[in-house]
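User: As part of a screening pipeline, I want to sanity-check one entry by hand. Below is the sequence and the SMILES for zinc ion. Please return the complex as structure tokens so I can compare it with the automated output.
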Amino acid sequence: MGVFTEVGDRVWVARYDWFDVNVSVIGGSGGLVVVDTHASATAARVVVDDVRRLGAGEVVAVVNTHEHFDHTFGNGVLREAYGEVPIHAHEWAAEHTLPAGERIKSRYDDEPDDPHAAEVLATEIVPADHTFSSAAVLDLGDRALELIHPGRGHTGGDLVVRIPGTSTDPDVLLAGDLVEESALRQGVPGFGADCYPMDWPATLDLVLNLVTPDTVVVPGHGAPVDRTFVENQRAAIGVVAETIRDLASRGVPVGQALDAADWPYPREELADAVRRGYEHLPRAQKRLPLI
Ligand SMILES: [Zn+2]
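Assistant: Here is the complex for your manual check:
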């Protein structure tokens, strides 16, 4: 069970123990939008119970902040509960939900002792069917939500949801995994095998343009944060990108890069970031190894 807490005018967030992941609900006169759907059909049934207990109305649309299974595997259950509601995502995320989900299932298949293996494997993967490339508006009657793709970062298809406030309630920005707060990950951003470390800093600059000093920023995992937190995380991610650029330009081989510099995050979290960063740098910014 999760508890939906109101963080802005008719904007509720529930934080679930498994992955410390957030599911958000936005209410308007036209109904509710659910943003992210948790990591399995079983987990999403709990989310649906929690949304019903909130008693704020019926779900009319679903949004996925990106394609990862901990944000999309409940899509099918939301449709079981509320009918064929539209599921919105960035076009990249929609396209990658199925292959990324199949990859994660095969990983759980190799770990049958994981207590969540059975429920992940039993989940039907339902990708988003309403997509956009740079921005879209969801009309909820007396209010509208903006879905914005600020660029690549945690994945190739991250979106943020901007929810304007009122004279008495703050703006809310649902940031997905472009911003990471969870203590489960010591607040280290998710630099996975599908991340874009060289693009991520500029992407967060665009996110910061959508955030005022009063905006409540809800990360994909962990507690809500403020603009200063996002500025600090942007700075650290910028250091990761600039360190990769510097090492590559000095001809340090990718296999030696992690040990050749100081990093703002633990080395073991950055192996994929370094590999991906080297791959994504233009040839002109890389030197041949000196040996
Ligand atoms: Zn996530």
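Points to compare against the pipeline: Residues 5-285 form a domain with the Metallo-beta-lactamase; Chain A fold (CATH 3.60.15.10). The mean pLDDT is 96.
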